[in-house]
Structures are given as C-alpha cells and as structure tokens.
Write a structure and sequence with these properties.
By secondary structure, the chain is α+β, with helices and mostly antiparallel strands. Helix content is 40%, strand content 18%. Strand 1 and strand 2 form a beta hairpin. Helix 2 crosses helix 3, helix 3 runs antiparallel to helix 4 and helix 4 crosses helix 5. The structure holds zinc ion (ZN). Zinc ion binds next to loops. The site of zinc ion (ZN) has 8 residues, from loops. Negatively regulates transcription of bacterial ribonucleotide reductase nrd genes and operons by binding to NrdR-boxes. Keywords: ATP-binding, DNA-binding, Metal-binding, Nucleotide-binding, Repressor, Transcription, Transcription regulation, Zinc, Zinc-finger. InterPro entries: ATP-cone_dom (IPR005144), NrdR-like_N (IPR055173), RNR_NrdR-like (IPR003796).
C-alpha cells in the first residue's frame, strides 16, 4: 500500500483492529519515508451484478439513496436510514456470497424497511416487485395486515415510522 501523501511505495502497519460489527479491519499505517499516518479499511469483497450485467462493489450509500427516495415525506430520520443501510449490509454479507444480484439486495431491503415505515415499504415494494395494478397493492397490504400483531389497531395508519428494535428473526 503506497503512501497517499508522498506516494512512497511502502507503508508499515502500526495498529490493526476489527470494527465493532466484525465486518472490517481498520489498519493504521505509517509511511517510512515521510512519517505521516493514514488509515485503511479492509472488507471482504462483495459485488453486485446489475440487471445490465455490469458488476459493481456493493454500496451501502446506494442502498440508502434508493430507500431515501421511497421515504420522501415520511417521518424517517437520516439516522434511521443509516441504521437500515447497516442492517442491509449485514444481511447480505451474512449470506456468505461474494456476488449478489440487485434483486438479492432489494430483497434484503424489504424486511428492514417494513420495520421502519410501512408506507415507504409499499412504495419500495411497488417498484421492486413491479406492481402494475391496484390488486398488487391490495395483496401487499393484506400481507402486511396479516403480519402486524393484532394489538396494532389501524396498522398502516397508526404507523409513525418508529424504527423497530433489531430483528430477532435472524
Ligand atoms: Zn509518505
């Protein structure tokens, strides 16, 4: 790894620690030439194959951008979006695959988004699952109503977008 400051072709690792979620390693490095320090982050390679066939690295921020669109006008904070991004990344990394399709990523978004905001979930699902009729929406809403605990009267209308606690389902 060359030095980002002086381009010296070598650097020395002075500290190395695993991040809290265990998904990456941060290394503190020092350049033996100019003496400056910098940090590198090492994660397992995770590639996403797009519908066009193009492959690109998995990007948590792209997930967040997509979900943010579905959350327009909804009481969803940036913090909650960041948490959702983290949950999605953890879920896709937990599959152990080095390559995913955009379909897999979308699938991993649906669960956390359903916990976050039901209206945003329906918007996202309508695109992801290519709803093309009112019946598709009705079916999705029926599914949601069946999943909601009976103690949540009103379901969709009552939902205030409060992030649910970390899922115990995994
Ligand atoms: Zn240097």
């Amino acid at each position: 790894m060359h030095c980002p400051f002086c381009r010296h072709p070598d650097s020395r690792v002075v500290d190395s620690r695993t991040t809290d979620d265990g998904a990456s390693i941060r290394r503190r490095r020092q350049c033996p030439d100019c003496g400056r320090r910098f940090t590198t982050v090492e994660t397992a390679s995770l590639m996403v194959i797009k519908r066009s066939g193009v492959t690109e690295p998995f990007s948590r921020s792209k997930v967040i951008v997509g979900v943010r669109k579905a959350c327009q006008g909804r009481p969803v904070t940036e913090d909650a979006l960041a948490q959702l991004g983290q949950r999605v990344e953890e879920a896709v990394r937990a599959t152990g695959s080095a390559e995913l399709s955009t379909h897999d990523v979308g699938l991993a978004i649906l669960g956390p988004l359903q916990d976050l905001d039901l209206v945003a979930y329906l918007r996202f699902a309508s695109v992801y699952r290519a709803f093309d009729s009112l019946e598709d929406f009705e079916r999705a809403i029926t599914e949601l109503r069946e999943q909601l605990p009976p103690t949540t009267p009103g379901g969709l209308d009552e939902d205030l977008g409060v992030p649910a606690p970390a899922s115990a389902a995994d």
